[in-house]
Fold this sequence. Notes:
This protein is an alpha+beta fold and 550 residues long.
Amino acid sequence: MSTSTFPSDSNSNPNPNPNLSPNSNSNSNPNPSINSNPNSSQILSSSSVSNFNPNSTIINQSEVNIVCPQCNTQLTSASERVCRKCGRNFYEPCLSCQSLNPFWLRQCRSCGIDLPSLKQQLLTTLNAQKQQILKYRESYGHDKTLPILKYMSTITHPEFSQFREWAKSMTNLIQKERKEIRTYIDNVRAQADAAMSAQKYDKVQQILEQVPRQLLDDGFRKQYIEAGEILTEVDSLVREIRNAIATKQYSQLLACVQRYLELKANDPEARTLQQKIEKLTTITTRNGTKLRRIPAGRFYMGSHESDEFLRNNEHPQHRVLITKNLFVGVYPVTQKDFLEIMEYNPSAASDKELCPVDSTTWFSAIEFCNKMSESESLQPFYELSKVKRRTNGGIESAEVKQLNGDGFRLLSEAEWEYVCRAGSITPWCFGDQVMDVNEHAWFFDNSTSETHPVGEKKPNAWGIFDMHGNVMEWCCDWYGEFYYQTCQDEIENPLGPNDGTSKVLRGGAWQFGAEATRSAYRNSSAPDAVSSVIGFRICRNAPDDSIING
């Protein structure tokens, strides 16, 4: 089915109301005797006029036969001004100068114009206008008929009174049909909107295909095209899902299924498939923390020059190769997780266990990773020494050494952006429209100045939540303002500068604007800093055969 144009309805033109049949004899001409005397403008023959004296008192019937043009009653006196039978006025306004003349005169007594010719011209015009009105009505151009009908309704010449009465009757009929058509359009729009909301895109098109072409407005056309584009995308996703299943590309499969469910949320088979994929690609720790398997791959790091929110520390954009498969936290570390492992909660509002933990130093995040590793019987990734603590238990300073064990760690800056983008190349993982941030992130405009429970906004294509907002997240790298300018293209697993005074922070936060929620947005803070807008997310290296069975 084509999605770019509307299907032709040349063979059938469904009528919104069976009573609106444009060809109906009862409606198309409310007054079928509109021109019952087609020769009424020529009541007198040429010889009759030449023998008739309009100044005579008595009409000699042997000389002339003049009858009332309305009821055919014979006139007996030239002084008669109205028909004695039907009351028809015998004096008519000249269609040129409006002066009154007996209807039997051929020339106006004031301007001398040929009266029968002028009447014939008007008769021809009115008949043509009548036919135009009927054509407009047949093609649902009711609004176009009203100016013509208004003109016809104002004609005062007695010889064309039938047109005036027909116009008045037709005006009432047109107004009635216009109301019925508006009701029909409103009903169709409501049905199409309901089908669109129910994600029944084929039904949307079926409904709109029944609408006569003349009644299709821009809203209908746009909705029809949108439904067609979604159907095309759904078909494409089905093919990609089948291919990903065949090739066991589970992360790509999950991304396709999640997008499919955005378009077809009520598809039970897709929902079941999503659950199976998540089971295959997700591990859960003993304390309930979920981590999603993320495959190695390439991506463009940084902002493109066309990004309207581009900052100096986000370019030049360069290609990065992530060579390691990862297990990445589906959510930022929550207050509940942190309290269970660390036995204290540093958060500014410490009574929200499902919200991200905040106000942790970078050193405390490192310590959490090690203790989490120990709880899972994994080798710690870091070694901490010369630890200096604060009164609440958090680490203010320490020496940190990487042991490269198989335990939990912080994401590098490159890994964080790779995971956040989830295969996208746009400013946000969901596209380039800033108005869509509200559906994917907690930020200044919608946060009510506080953190929110994790997982309430839409995830990215790899099923990772809250990467665009809620709290910024510590990364393991030292921060370099102009570090990107030193990066080579196709760099593998970059880890940032060798030293520095601040650590990288990634992702937006509840206190920041929408521009700070972009995938490439970079920030930093001293490793001993604490803030209610700073949290963290954990990960660990995943072996190549880490698809979980069961």
